[in-house]
Amino acid sequence: MLRNGQARRSCSIASRDMKLSIIATLYRSALGLREFHRRAMAAAGTLADEVEMVLVDDGSPDESLDLALEIQRGDPRVVVVELSRNFGHHRAMMTGLAQATGDLVFLLDSDLEEEPEILGDFHARMMEGGWDVVYGVQAARRGGLVERALGAAFYAIVDTLSDTKLPRNLVTARLMRRAYVDALVKHNDRSFVIAELWQATGFRQTGMEVRKLSLSPTTYSFGQRLEMAVQQVVTTSTRLLHVIFHFGLLVFALSLATMGFYLFRWMVHGVGVEGWLSVILSVWFFGGTVVMILGVLGLYIANIMHETKRRPYTVIRSIHRAGARDE
Q1: Which pLDDT score is estimated for 139?
Q2: What share of the chain in percent tops pLDDT 70?
Q3: What is the pTM of this model?
Q4: Which homologous superfamily is 5-220+312-320 in?
Q5: What mean pLDDT do residues 288-308 have?
Q6: Chain segment 306-318, per-residue pLDDT in tens
């Protein structure tokens, strides 16, 4: 956080000749959208004279789009990007970033769980340290014991199996310079987890602790979070393939050793192998192992197929700008 108001004032003056873009996605966001717009624009107005807000409607089933268009008609600084359907939070964010034109780009969710006023603190940190990116992190993961345990397990698996380690307890809020955003949107991955792209893009990044409120239930179900964890591993790492190879090598070596033991016992002591239980257990074990390995390989192959289709992140139905026809 800022140590005093002087740093905030000096950073505000230094940014008056820069354009600031605010990016947010809309999905069941109607309830707090007006307040989000008011507070985010007020926070941005203290830093830059030229401000734009890009709202990406990710096929929201409520009246978020209608409300965003109403706000846009009253505020020409707002741009509404209407997607043709729901493509998912991460893809919608990448679409919004591609539409941003500011020298600085502030990305956050529109549900007000991350307070828009943290923009001033992020900006001060960026200016003081010469950072390219300032991103938000929670001091402690919110939720109950089970949710926190699952979150810890997710990061442990990702750190073990992925090539890139992710910062703990990331939130969406982040302030980025133009060069970083341009590099980020150049990624052509069709299957991705955005937190990994944030890290893979590089540049000088630093985290800043933020307080995340609990104003609305999460739109991510347990199944979606599990799918995200699997996607993170099979799209960013080859370590899992190495683990499978070495596991198969170990099982092969143990099988040879076991066969050698029983063959030696039969030749020297005349004791054969009896009973069907060992056969059944061996079939179950090796059958399950083969199915598991084929499943993992199938996930990798499926992602390769998805990438080779070269489909766009999203399909934009219309872009609504003030003083211009819808694109």
Answers
A1: 75
A2: 73
A3: 0.73
A4: Spore Coat Polysaccharide Biosynthesis Protein SpsA; Chain A (3.90.550.10)
A5: 73
A6: 667 677 778 899 9
Answer yes or no: are the C-beta atoms of 102 and 323 closer than 8 Å: no
- Domain range summary for the chain, segments of one domain joined by +: 5-220+312-320, 239-308
* Better pLDDT: 50 or 327: 50
